[in-house]
Every structure is written in C-alpha cells, then in structure tokens.
Recover the amino acids of this structure.
C-alpha cells in the first residue's frame, strides 16, 4: 500500500472515529423529519457565509457608509 492510499485510509478512519465518538449527539439529528434537516443544513450554510463576511469586514477595518460595505462584499 503506497503512502497516498495509507493517508486516505487514515482520513476515512478518523472520520469514522469522530462519528462513533459523537454518536449520541448525531443520532437525535436523524430523528428530525427530512424537511427540518434540510433547514438545519441551510442554516449552517448561511452561518458559514456570515462568518466569511465578518472576517472580510474585520480585515478591512472602517467603512464610510453601509453602501461601501455592500460594495465590498
């Protein structure tokens, strides 16, 4: 087995280990109906975008008005 395959196997087993370690917190999530899970996925995506926007704004510093923030983002 070459090094690349060993690394990929390690990554997969690490992911499995994380799921097993957190199983009691993961299982209740699957008890929600499909529609609710979809909303949760969407919420996570929105939070990710908001986090990226905050990072951009923080790095930029000061904006003269709200319009310049919208233009920058």
């Amino acid at each position: 087995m070459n090094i690349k395959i060993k690394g990929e196997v390690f990554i997969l087993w690490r992911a499995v280990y994380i799921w097993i370690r957190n199983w009691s917190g993961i299982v209740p999530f699957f008890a929600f109906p499909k529609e609710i899970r979809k909303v949760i996925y969407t919420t996570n995506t929105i939070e990710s975008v908001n986090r990226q926007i905050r990072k951009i704004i923080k790095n930029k510093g000061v904006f003269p008005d709200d319009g310049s923030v919208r233009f920058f983002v």
About this structure: The two ends are 46 Å apart (CA to CA). The chain is about 85% helix and 0% strand. Residues 34-60 form the longest helix (27 residues).
